[in-house]
From TrEMBL:
It comes from Tolumonas auensis (strain DSM 9187 / NBRC 110442 / TA 4). This is YceI family protein. Pfam families: YceI. Residues 1-21 form the signal peptide. Keywords: Signal. InterPro entries: Lipid/polyisoprenoid-bd_YceI, TTHA0802/YceI-like_sf. The lineage of its organism: Bacteria, Pseudomonadati, Pseudomonadota, Gammaproteobacteria, Aeromonadales. Residues 24-184 form the Lipid/polyisoprenoid-binding YceI-like domain.
Amino acid sequence: MMKTLFRISVLAALLPLATQAAEYTQVDVKQSAINFSYQQMGVAMDGKFNEFTSTLKFDPAKPAEGKAVFDVALASIDAGTEEANGEVAGKDWFNTAAFPQAHFESGAIKALGDNKFEVSGKLTIKGKTIDVVVPSSFKEEGEKGIFAGSFTIRRGDFAIGEGSWSTFDIVANDIQVKFTITANQQ
């Protein structure tokens, strides 16, 4: 009898938590950002991408079942000036005429505790696909879920900067990608 009462008490205590779980599927692009930073001639530089589309499915109670797909319009880059934007859209850099999008697709989401997650997936830029691990945090604010994180790619792995730009003496090889993604519940 005591065991049964204990089990009922535990289930009753957990029930409110289970009903609060929600699935986040609708990315609010206007409240989201994909930024990047790098070094050029030893000086820190920042930029962002203004357009992307996504498919998201995330339930904080079942993170392993989650899925994320992002397509970033590379021509939407803001590297600080119109001249820089035109240069990086060109053939030696992103070659947006031939490769208009970067694509990320998650393969696994692993809970690390304390609202931290590790998202493993594949990132494709300029036709080259590389496995990446993206550390991310998640917090709920009302009916919104906010994902934030950063990871580093090496531009040489994707041939971003070809010809005379393929060395790393002027523009560093490491590019840090930083994101904040706001999503609404289903």
